[in-house]
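Technical annex, item 7. During the second reporting period the consortium partners agreed on a shared format for inverse folding records so that results from different sites could be compared directly. Each record opens with the tokenized structure and is followed by the designed sequence. A conforming record, contributed by the partner at site C, is shown below for reference.
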């Protein structure tokens, strides 16, 4: 079971931009093989960070507006938001240690 909450274009501002804690947005699509492999890794990362970081998932097939606004062209893409601004972009399947390192530098 995923620790990340599924959000849509309508919820993006409230869940991500207005969040008081840093947010990692996982942009994915059902047809994306690497996205499916990244899911369990992100669940582990989310468990390690606990309440320090919020994790959300956004299906780009169903939420084109937000994906376009943030120039999401490769999947999976992780965007780290802090104080309503995208501060880190990670594209592609990567090891858990790299994901953790790239999130930690924004805490």
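Designed sequence (site C submission):
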């Amino acid at each position: 079971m995923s620790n990340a909450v599924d959000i849509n274009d309508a919820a993006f501002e409230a869940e991500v931009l207005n969040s008081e804690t840093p947010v990692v947005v996982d942009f994915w699509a059902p047809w994306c093989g690497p996205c499916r492999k990244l899911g369990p890794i992100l669940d582990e990362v989310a468990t390690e960070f606990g309440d320090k970081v919020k994790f959300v998932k956004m299906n780009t097939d169903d939420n084109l507006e937000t994906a376009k606004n943030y120039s999401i062209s490769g999947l999976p893409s992780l965007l780290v938001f802090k104080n309503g601004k995208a501060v880190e972009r990670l594209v592609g399947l990567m090891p858990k240690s790299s994901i953790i390192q790239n999130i930690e530098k924004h805490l």
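Helices lie at 9-17, 33-49, 64-69, 96-104. Strands lie at 5-6, 23-28, 54-59, 77-82, 85-91. All partners now use this format for quarterly exchanges.
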